[in-house]
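Title: Comparing notes on inverse folding

I've been comparing how different people in this forum approach sequence design from structure. To keep things fair, I'm posting one structure and asking everyone to reply with a full sequence. Here's the target:
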């Protein structure tokens, strides 16, 4: 996840936890549009197209880092 900013890593973590965009916005004290922007940028950088792929990516990185 070295390609991502600190904020993008936060958003990715919350998406992987199954949080909604509205929940993420409330947690980070930003608008839903801002969360959508970050999520879109993350997906572009990682080359994924769906939230499921994004979650799978985040989980695989965490599991690999734990080994």
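Reply #1:
Here's my take.
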């Amino acid at each position: 996840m070295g390609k991502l900013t600190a904020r993008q890593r936060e958003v990715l973590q919350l998406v992987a936890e199954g949080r909604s965009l509205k929940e993420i916005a409330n947690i980070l004290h930003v608008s839903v549009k801002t969360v959508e922007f970050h999520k879109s940028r993350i997906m572009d950088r990682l080359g994924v197209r769906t939230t499921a792929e994004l979650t799978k990516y985040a989980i695989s990185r965490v599991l690999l880092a734990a080994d």
